Amino acid sequence: MSLARITALLTAVLPVCVLAQQLNAADVDRAARIAWLKEHAIALRSINPIDEDFSDLEPLRKTIGDVRIVQLGEQSHGDGATFHAKGR
Question: Could you give phi then psi for residue 60, rounded to 5 degrees?
Answer without folding.
Answer: -70, -25
